Each structure stands twice: as C-alpha cells, then as structure tokens.
Amino acid sequence: MAEGAAREFDKRLKTAADAVETMLDRLLGPSPLAGEIARPGRLLEAIRYSSLGGGKRLRPFLLIETARLFGVEGEGVTRAAAAVEMIHCYSLVHDDLPALDNDDLRRGRATTHKAYDEATAILVGDGLLTYAFDVLADPATHADPAIRAELVLALARAAGFGGMIGGQVLDLEAEQSTAPHTAEAVIRLQSMKTGALLHFSVLAGAIIGAADAKARAALSAYGHALGAAFQVADDILDVEADEATLGKRAGKDAGRNKATLVAALGLEDARKRRDRLAAEAIAALDLFSQGLDAATLKEAAHFVAKRAS
C-alpha cells in the first residue's frame, strides 16, 4: 500500500470502529425500548462483554465506506453497520461454544461462555441475532421502508442456512470427514461461512446508497472476492501467527481437520490465491475510478491480504 493511502485507510477504519462502538454502546444500553418489558442485567452485561471493546470492525467499515461512495453518511448508516457487527459478534460467541469450536480465548480475553456460562452465551448470541434485525427494521435506520425491507431480507439470506449458518454446518461436517478436503468444497464452505456476511456488508452500503445495477454488480464482485481473500488469509494466519498476535488459539485448524485452503492447496498456493483474490477485488472497483472515490475500499483489499491478526 502507498504510505499516504495506508494512513488514510487506517484513519477511516478507526473512525468507523469508534462510531460503531459508540452506537453499540447506546443500542445495548439498559433502558427498554417501546414494546420491550425489561433488559435483564446479567444478560445485558454479557452481551456488552461480547460486543464492545474489541475487533477491527471490518464489516461495519465496509458498509460505511460503500454507502459513502454514494454520498450517504450519518446515524442511519452507523445503525446499519452496528446491526452487521451484532450478527458477527453473535456468530463468534456461538462458534466458541464447546459444542462447536470449544475455544477459551477470543480477542485476547476469555470467550463469553468462559467469562459467564454456556447457557448465557447461547442467549447472548440469540439476543444479538434478534436485535440486529430490530435495528435494521427501525425507521431510525432509514426513512424508506423498502430500503429497510431489502436490508433485512439480504441480511437474513447472508446469515441464514443458505449462508453463514449453512457454512458452519459444512465446516462441522468437514471435521468428521476422512476424505481429503478438496479446494472446491472448501471454497464453497468459506463463501458461505465467512464470505456471505462480508459480501452483505458491501451490498448493504450499495442498498442504502441507492446504487444502480451496474454499480451494484461491481460492488458485489468486490465483496465476493474480498470475502474469499479474507478467509484464505485467516487460514494462513492460523499456520503462521502466534496466539498473542491473533488474540485467539493458533494452530487449531490442522489439529481439528478443519477444511482450509492451506490444507487443500498447500501454503504457497494458498498465498497466491489470497493475493489473486485481493487483486480481483481491487479491479472490480475500477468502475468508480472516474468521479466517485473507491480508494479506501481498494486499500481494504490490501489490508485483508496482508493483515497480521
């Protein structure tokens, strides 16, 4: 990355993270909303533990920056970005449970079921999942009910059994398989488990920005390539990085027969695929080279490919 562009990317990533942190802090406050009866203290404490004070907030950043391409900014965009982060945080809480990945460490501290208990962690995930759709459906997020409905539908498809949840099921099935993991199967799994929510984050910005069909197609291609690059990079980090850097257990993939592209392709070919996907993501944004500025989204592709944690 060019030094100036990298600095601008870092600045915008932090700005987005700070804005989403503030919004989550507000949305996850103790006061019940209209139609709610009460917000139990222990549940709220655990939800805040799992959602606040950690993570790069890449998915919210992608939504915010994509909407910004079309001149749309403000509280409604930040609310939508916070909803995406709620889905991501819920998925991490549930992934860490003993019945799934059985992890003790997340973002450098105890996972939610370790800090609280398994039942609370399950309910934390359930609560975040439900509340994300509450936030998107609220007129405070967007005045146009058609936009809100489109956001809700697209997120349900990305996070549901044909997207993130389905990918998690394929991941669990792959762990039990005695056959070698094929690249084709791993790519499909990863496009669902990880890629679908990253793709939605970009698509949501386009929906909010009222992008035309051509712009949406370009951003969709970007989102798919970026999501795929992100997961390959994650597979590589599990092999190359240490626990302190990752903030979670390292080296677990091989030990659990995880379906990864490092296992399917080998480390060197996985690196080549990661870099090729990042280049594809950047090229998909050439549509915006005249007029609208997509430089920060292009830098996001460099960041995903080269990240250290």
TrEMBL record:
GO annotation, biological process: terpenoid biosynthetic process
GO annotations of cellular component type: cytoplasm
Gene3D superfamilies recorded: Farnesyl Diphosphate Synthase
Family in the record: Belongs to the FPP/GGPP synthase family.
This protein's name: Probable farnesyl diphosphate synthase
InterPro entries: Isoprenoid_synthase_dom_sf, Polyprenyl_synt, Polyprenyl_synt_CS, Prenyl_diphosphate_synthase
Organism, scientific name: Methylocella silvestris (strain DSM 15510 / CIP 108128 / LMG 27833 / NCIMB 13906 / BL2)
UniProt keyword annotations, A-Z: Isoprene biosynthesis, Magnesium, Metal-binding, Transferase
Known cofactor(s): Mg(2+)
UniProt key word Ribonucleoprotein: no
GO molecular function terms noted in the UniProt entry: metal ion binding; prenyltransferase activity
